[in-house]
Amino acid sequence: MASYILRRLLIAVPLVFGVLTLTFFIIRLAPGDPAAFFIQPGISPNVAEQIRQQYGLNDPLPVQYIKWLGNVLHGDFGRSFSRAQQPVFDVIAEALPVTMTIAVLTLIANFAFGIIIGVISAVRQNTFLDRFLTVTALFFYSMPEFWFALMMIILFALKLPVFPVSGLNEVGAESYGPVGFVLDRIWHLVLPVTVLSINGAAGIARYVRGSMLEVIRQDYVRTARAKGLSESAVILKHALRNALLPVVTLIGSSLPFIFSGALFIEVIFAFPGMGRVTVEAIFARDYPLIIADTFVSGTLIVLGNLMSDVLYAVVDPRIKL
Amino acid sequence: MTKRSNRASAFFGLLLLLSVTLLSSACSKQKGGTPLSTSARDSTLVVAMLGDADYLNPVIGASVTSGNIAGLIYPSLLQSEFDTSTGLLNYLAIEKKLRPSSPGVASRSPKGALAKTWIMAPDNRSITYILRSDARWEDGKPIVSRDFKFAYRLYGDPVIASPRQQYLAELVGADKGAVDFDRAIETPNDTTLVFHFHKPVPEHLALFHTSLTPLPEHIWKDVKPREFRESKLNMKPVGSGPYRLVTWNKQQDVTLASNPSCVLPKPGNIRKIMFRVVPDYTVRLTQLQTGAVDVVENVKPEDFGALTRANPGLEVKTVGLRVFDYVGWSNIDHDYFHKTGKIRPHPLFGSPAVRLALTHAIDREAIIDGYLGTYGTICNTDISPSLKWAYDDTIKPHACDPALAAKLLEKEGWLPGPDGIRQKNGRKFAFTLYTNAGNDRRNYACVVIQQNLKELGIDCKIEMQESNVFFENLQSRNLDAWMAGWSIGLEIDPLDVWGSDLDKSRFNFTGYQNPRIEQLSQLAKAKMRPEDARPFWVEYQQILHRDQPVTFLYWIRETHGFSKRIIGEELNISGTFYNIDDWTLNPSANAVR
Question: What's the whole-model pTM score?
Fold first, then answer.
């Protein structure tokens, strides 16, 4: 397995690199100018030119590419255009933990809710409860996240003021003490994590239900029942374990979805995470930051896929890598 | 079997409910229970902002937000006040005013100024400031004239690329390519600061252009220009204004605290001001409604009713008029100009009579009634009714008159074709009206205009473009018709927009050329007193009204939502936070300090 992982990682290097090169050219060929902000009446026409000079945008594209390549090979992704010339990895280092917190919580909630709903649907196949859960799951699955987020805000922050509308902490949260501060943070995370995870959980529930239905009909489940095991032992110990095998691999592949979902959620809930960094970088045509964001999310997606492939082999001994 | 799983799901459900209630109750206790947090909110003003500040450094800060915040941290040479009865900007030093304040107009205390007084040379080629000697930077070092000279060098350094280098355009040497700082700015002693110009400059412009914010030389002197933008010092600004920076969580919030050592003019009344980044408009409104923030700028008129009904503790304040929307028509054939460098009229919009017809066809009142309500007023030219000293109030707006529009078009040869669309020499009157995506107001106006033109036999398609794309297309003069807007400066300077040299006038997107407009602008700018230039500006407005290089649509009153717990806010055309250091919070006044 180790050699398999190593091989995959080696393949990932040119893959990620190819993605970065594509991004490099696409964003530069797209209309828009990082210095556009400085082109307005009252600002000397020289300013935009000086800014472009600073950013190295006056060189021909191939020269820019070669310079960029040299820097990236030295591990230098440059400085952000739009965020006070901070090194892009500093920007990402500030933003990534926020998004990772949301992603991990969402992942946990996704699977917890998804598995529970899926198992109930499968065990009660074709009952009213199953149909109700199926329709509800599809309802949430097909709902756009940004809209759902706004509806949740209107419902739970405006009509029933239970949760805060946005931000990571209350004003003056520093004075709550460490425990209070963390609780305040969690309290602020409830709505966004719910919005993000309901969508994913609905998908996983459908998946678990299908997988569970297949397993319940297997001979060994009948045997387990025939042995006189209690229903919960049959379902939770014998059936669920096997039904979860294909589901586990979803962990890796749901990462990209959570990341793209975070894009909307972070803008709406005003979280300073990767999603917002990316959106703002794109609008500001902040080339180095866009590339660094692509690098981070690209790497995470490649690693996520690798993880799901490896997990397959880990949970199912019949599969050899 | 069913009973058991029933029990299991009920158990999970309970667990969930429990954990959620626990969490929320724990936190609401935190929120409401501890007196600390209550008083923290009571003495903190929270302002929602759309995006983070870029730099809290007056030399390179470019966004309005940065300017607002830096303005509270840094001292200023002069105080400025906008005289609403004349529309003129007034400048104040401690012992001198450019012109007396109009009676009945709220006047600003001059005590925030660093300058005691100024002397304008009789030939208008230099200005001398006498600075007060008791002003100190936050670290206790005195503020001296050298700090200004030092800062001006930074403003003028092409490597630093300050967006304010235009202010230095009249200093000695600027006419030859680079300001000669040794000759242009003199500092004979700590409290005397002299600026020399290469040409006579009207006093009000001299004051405007020499009142850039200083930087403490002793702190910044070792920072190389190349490293200026990335310097760590940008994160801890040392100023001397009514507020100082406490924390700056990038992309989250900027917190300022009243600066107890401030004498310019005094420490800010409100103990803490927090600027919070809330990118989404709906969320900003919700926060204003729930009281999580106190100020939200640019609330859309359609949201006022719901907002003030839902929370009677809110009020909407308006300020204006600085912003207008217009429909731009290509006056010249841009394709032909790009290819040959020569000018010929645009096949559709080249004739002033056609443009006038289009203005008559568009129901501007309907757009205002339908969207802006009382917060909009018809726009005739780009000189704002707020600039009363220059505004020509005798101009009658071109009324919405489809019959007259049709007559004008027919006179120009645009006759209805078999499909109902007007045509002339085989060319249909059909075009695409471009605007930027995501602006509800322009969206609304576009649809009304499309309908108005359709009734006249003109085929107008609408296309929304992403802002960057739209702006680039405008800049490179790729669009035949578009809707956009301008926010005007308080000094009238229209040559960027109407100048005849299309290479120099970067914002002349229409290609309108009229030598008299240029002449009038030059004549007006040469007057040493702005009031004396009124006749020139009146003629300027009459020409624009006649030629209709664009269809001016409406002036917009900017509308901002405020919590009523703020006392003493005075909105002014020069900014929402014009006198924020004088605001107080009710009932927190007692809880403060």
Answer: 0.82
